[in-house]
Amino acid sequence: MDIPRRRFLGLAGLAAASVAGLSACGSNTGRPDPEASASGGGTKPQLSQWYHEYGEDGVEDAVKRYAAAYEAATVTVKWNPGDYDKLVSSALLTANVPDIFEYGNGPTLDMIKAGQVVDLTELIGDAKSQFSAPVLAAMTWEDKIYSIPQTTDMQMLYYRKSVLEKAGVQPPTTMVALTDAASKVATDDMGGFFAGNDGGIGVLNQMLIWAAGQEQINTDQTGIGFDNDAGYGALAAFAQLYGSGGLLKSASADWFAADPFVNSETAMQWGGLWMLPDITAKLGDDFGVLPFPAIGSAGRQAVPFGSYGAAVTAKGRDPEAAKAFVKWLWIDQEEFQVDFSNSYGTHIPAKPSLVAKADKIASGPGAEAAGFVDKLGFAPNKLWTQAISQAMVAAVTNVATKKADPETEVGKVAAVATKEIARIK
Predict the structure, then answer these.
(1) 404-420, pLDDT tens digit by residue?
(2) What is the pLDDT of residues 62-71, one digit of tens each?
(3) N or C terminus: which one in the chain shows less Cβ crowding within 10 Å?
(4) Same domain (yes/no): 221, 322
């Protein structure tokens, strides 16, 4: 199954799996070639803008159309198939940097600390309040904003209304209720809840932290923020769900595809906003959506999201001209912002006020999903490294499948995180 990359906006850190890419593009630097530069005429600034290769048809033409509409500079768009993150990171170490580039949930901490990207806090100015606060927070480090959000994707829980109603079960808002509901609605032919063919460990392991009312990293930025009873309880609660008869652990497709849900293999499924059109087409209004349920007495409902943001390189040819273009496109041009989110797949505009103009999510479950992000949204902390993520996956796996002690397993994650954060700092 071909999965558009935009479906995994910033969510690679939330799941154990990753999407394989093609090799990088070699000597193509993304700079306008002499002919492209000359075609701009006059003394207008020449800017290069990088995007990764989106899976949805029409996106490349759209972003080139946006760039062509800008009159204050000649902007040449470079479309980058393959391992985009690696390509950008490598390019920023050379003299051939792009002037503007998009990156999932904003530039990495390495890019920020190395001074490779420009602080855009003053650029966004009073428009800051127009953007979804959680989305903008993901692109912020130490109160400075390093990219302007473009569009947002997210994950949530889908449930069949008719199935739950027939079983006399309310849509679950707590982990205890989810475990109970999954068991009550499960039959020989239909599972209760599905979150992946690994039992949900890959996609849900970090959700357990946020749903328990905790944070990935503590306020002192010295270690994890869930090495406590609430954190231990979250892993224990997941182990109960994992061991229940209601959790479907094998389906015709994985969690990111609508097939298990629309084929009635499961009454509830964790999935992405991108599944909404398929589900609506096949089930009509016989479904609802929910955030991930709260865990424990300190818990809260939550959803994960990812949002690409436009960043400006510090060593580009004209950072001020690049900033002006980014402001024009991603702050001022709301018609283009709606088009980018709504015309090529199903996505959420970064500004909540534009949701009503995106007809695919203007009402019903889509509008609910947008509200979840704005009020309950979480993205990985910039200090949450791949090593910490892998340790978390191992901890949840051991607790769920081997009945390991949650406190001991969280302690292992804490040890890895302490070393990782010290290394980064």
Answers:
(1) 999 999 999 999 999 99
(2) 999 999 999 9
(3) N
(4) no
Please tell me the distance from the alpha carbon of residue 356 to that of residue 143, in angstroms, as a whole number. 30
Let me know whether 361 and 409 are in one domain.
Answer: no
Task: Clarify whether residues 126 and 165 are in a common domain.
Answer: no
Q: Could you tell me the pTM of the whole model?
A: 0.92
| Interstrand relation of 224-225 and 215-217 (parallel, antiparallel or unpaired) | antiparallel
Confidence of residue 6 (pLDDT cuts 50, 70, 90): low
Inform me whether the pLDDT recorded for 21 exceeds 60: no
Instruction: Write down the number of H helices and E strands in the chain.
Output: 18, 15
pLDDT over 90 at 42, yes or no: no
* 352-358 long-range contacts, CB within 8 A, separation 24+: 352/132, 353/130
Q: Which of 363, 378, 393 is the last residue of a domain?
A: 378
Q: Are residues 200 and 337 in the same domain?
A: no
| Domain containing residue 59 | 5-153+306-378
Mean pLDDT of 224-253: 98
Counting beta carbons within 10 angstroms of the beta carbon of residue 254, is it exposed (0 to 12), middle (13 to 18) or buried (19 or more)? buried
Domain count, the chain: 2
Tokens of 166: 């027939």
Residue 265's CB: how many other CB atoms inside 10 A? 18
Q: Do 133 and 276 belong together in one domain?
A: no
Q: What is the dihedral of CA 201, 204, 210, 215, to 10 degrees?
A: 50
Considering the domain architecture, whether residues 219 and 327 belong to the same structural domain is answered as no
User: Considering Cα of 302, then 303, then 304, then 310, what sign does the dihedral take?
Assistant: negative
Distances 14 to 18, 219, 384, 386 between C-alpha atoms, Å: 10, 21, 10, 10
